[in-house]
């Protein structure tokens, strides 16, 4: 029984996120068409994963367990952050929500993932970063998500 407990503890330790296993290399990702930029952990999100609506890029981890979308899109209706968020179909049990006159940030769980969205509003554009990562690695991702979120900016 004790050997099983040690094996379980070892397995959990072995599953520790690559986020904390090695130093994170950061670069600035910019969208030239809109002036959006964000600090981007390029050592974590190593693979391009397509383009979102509007301008930007999706990336994912090599093992596909996490992804990030950096995008800008026109705010056609010139919505406030609160109005824009109200129009979007979000899961009903949002765990975290902050809305100001200039941005919103929301987060929750969807299946075995945490999703986090932050959108800044400037002029007639919405500048967003959307991140999905394993819920069982949530604490490992806290500092990474915080840095990404706070670095989102536009010209």
Automatic annotation (TrEMBL):
The keyword Signal applies. Residues 1-21 form the signal peptide. Keywords: Signal. It comes from the Bacteria. This is Uncharacterized protein.
